[in-house]
Amino acid sequence: MNNASLTNKNSLARKLFALFTFLGCGVFALIAGILFLFSINFANIAVEKSMHGMAEDIPDTLHFDEQGKLNYSATNMAKKWGYDALFNNLAFKVTDSVSGEVLLTSNPHRATSAALLALPKDMPQGYSFLNGIDRYRLTADIDGTVLYVDLARDDMIGELANEAVLPMLGQVLTLTMVSAFLIFILVGYISIKAVVKPVNNVASQLDNIEPSQLDRRLDETGVPSEMLPLVNALNEAMDRVETGFNEQKRFVANAAHELKTPLAVLRTRLELANLPDKIGCELMGDINYMTRVVEQLLDLSRAQNQNSYLHKPVNISDVAKDVCMLLGPLTLTYKKDLALEELDKDAEVIGDQAALIIMLKNLLENALKHAEEGAQVIVEVAKDRISVKDSGPGINEEDRVKLFERFWRKEQSTLTGSGLGLAIVNEVVLAHNARIDVECKNDIGGATFHIYFYDKPY
């Protein structure tokens, strides 16, 4: 998951991360609320438990003496001090369960102890709370006499506990919650990244499939089962596209091939017919144009049929020489100057020699036809590069994107070309894993086409 995924509002990764964060905030807010409520009652819960324990300990320290008086003999000085001297906030009394007589109190000055005053005769068993006083009643059998042991605590101890415990507890809880939330977000980010990674891998594979690689398919290795139907559907769609594209190529090749014979017959009959010179020339020009279109359709079909390519080391300097010699007569016809500049005579590339000849031939024909009379056309060969430049009118920037479209011509109303030459060039370039750059205005005034070759063809 990259930064672009998180910034795109329609990104699945962004939506998952937002949902994950929203749910995380909700869950941690709920946990924080529960812990807050628990922390509020923490001191009361702690005191209630401690009161229960102390109330159970008190009967162990009670006994009747020989005169029948109930005595409290705590050996634990901390307990005795706590009952007698802690600001009268913690106190107990023992009463007879039958007569209701108070037999013993932790503070002899009962009237001054708010805790003792909060212990009435009709107090319920167990824990209770009244007027800010925590109370606890326990029934005990001391030497055959059933007694009520009542324990009381007012809120001062609770407040002391809250003041001592809650700040520290709050800090610990805050630190714990923040750390846990950050870890939660980090785990969520890593998890979403792992979930989205297969999608990115599939998208990367799709991006790397060029129009000339319709036989390639998406790799199903490591694809999650939830995404497998999508990958299979894409592969099946590419099967249909490849089948349709191959049928289209076969149709074009077959149609062009079938048209060659009728055009040749028509040319022969026209040459033998006794027609006026003007009409004969016009008809012959039309036949030549149609013948040229058919030939280039066949060239385009061959350029697209990469299965027929024979890739091997090819000296592009030799290819340039062959093409220049082949088109040499056209320089006289079009009154242009053709030159070959070899910057590297041993420039070799991996490719199909016949296809490279067709590519360079179309580039040169295009330059010779469209440059003005007396213009210069230069073929330049360097390591891993071949360029064709001219001193013609150049190319308009707005026409650059249309150059390699099939049947596109700058002057659509004229029959000066078929509009297939640069489309054939582009197909050969793609088949050789090469790149074509167009320089609309070069140093001699015209346009330059640069073909850059890489190590291996597709």
UniProtKB/TrEMBL annotation:
Annotated CDD domains: HATPase, HisKA
Keywords, comma-separated and alphabetical: Kinase, Membrane, Phosphoprotein, Transferase, Transmembrane, Transmembrane helix, Two-component regulatory system
Sequence ranges assigned to domain Histidine kinase in this UniProt record: 254-457
Cellular component, GO annotation: plasma membrane
SUPFAM superfamilies xref list: ATPase domain of HSP90 chaperone/DNA topoisomerase II/histidine kinase, Homodimeric domain of signal transducing histidine kinase
InterPro entries with a match to the protein in the record: HAMP_dom (IPR003660), HATPase_C_sf (IPR036890), HATPase_dom (IPR003594), His_kinase_dom (IPR005467), HisK_dim/P_dom (IPR003661), HisK_dim/P_sf (IPR036097), Sig_transdc_His_kin-like_C (IPR004358), TCS_sensor_his_kinase (IPR050428)
SMART domains: HAMP (SM00304), HATPase_c (SM00387), HisKA (SM00388)
Reactions that this protein is recorded to catalyse: ATP + protein L-histidine = ADP + protein N-phospho-L-histidine
Residues covered by the HAMP domain: 193-246
E.C. number: 2.7.13.3
Membrane topology reported for the UniProt record: Multi-pass membrane protein
Any GO MF annotation of the entry: phosphorelay sensor kinase activity
Main location as per UniProt: membrane
Subcellular localization(s) per the UniProt record: Membrane
Transmembrane feature ranges: 16-42, 172-192
Enzyme class: transferase
Entry protein name: histidine kinase
